[in-house]
Amino acid sequence: MTHDLVAALGPLLSAEASAEAQAAGSEPADLEQAVWLRLLERLAAAGPPPDPYGWLRGAVRAEARRSRRTTRRERPYGAEPADDARPGPEQLALTAARYRALREAVGRLPGRCPRLLEALLSPTDPTYREIAGELGISQGSLGPERSRCLGCLRRLLAPEVAARGARG
Hints:
This protein is mostly helical. The chain has two domains: 2-73, no CATH class; 88-167, Orthogonal Bundle (Arc Repressor Mutant, subunit A). It has seven helices and no strands. Helix 1 (2-24) runs parallel beside helix 3 (52-73) and helix 2 crosses helix 3 (52-73). The longest helix is centred in the last third of the chain and has 26 residues, at 142-167. The radius of gyration is 35 Å and the shape is rod-shaped.
């Protein structure tokens, strides 16, 4: 009996769901699935409806109304949480750990490299002339010295960067 009912109602349900889906803002397959579920619930509770075709048309319209109501109440995110411009606590903790690792590596550099890099990254943004005067070196040797210090820093951080890349 149930198989015959499903076979008889299938084409009508497909046509009705296709007709109602656009106005409901839903997919025809979603409406069909919801109506099949309602039919199974109906069969379990009260048996087959006396007028299966009329019941089916009413069920499709009821599901379409429910879908419209749900669509009106749902509000999309202004921005996806992952796209939020503000960093979350995890990102802040990771950034702080990276800065600590960088500061520790700068502290392990040879000679005047730690002082040079601190001066170059200073929030007061000193000129090359001011940095050279502070370190007691010529302004012309500042560029080559900076390159040598950054090369040393790169070599110090290479194992950590490689380990971070392997973790994910």
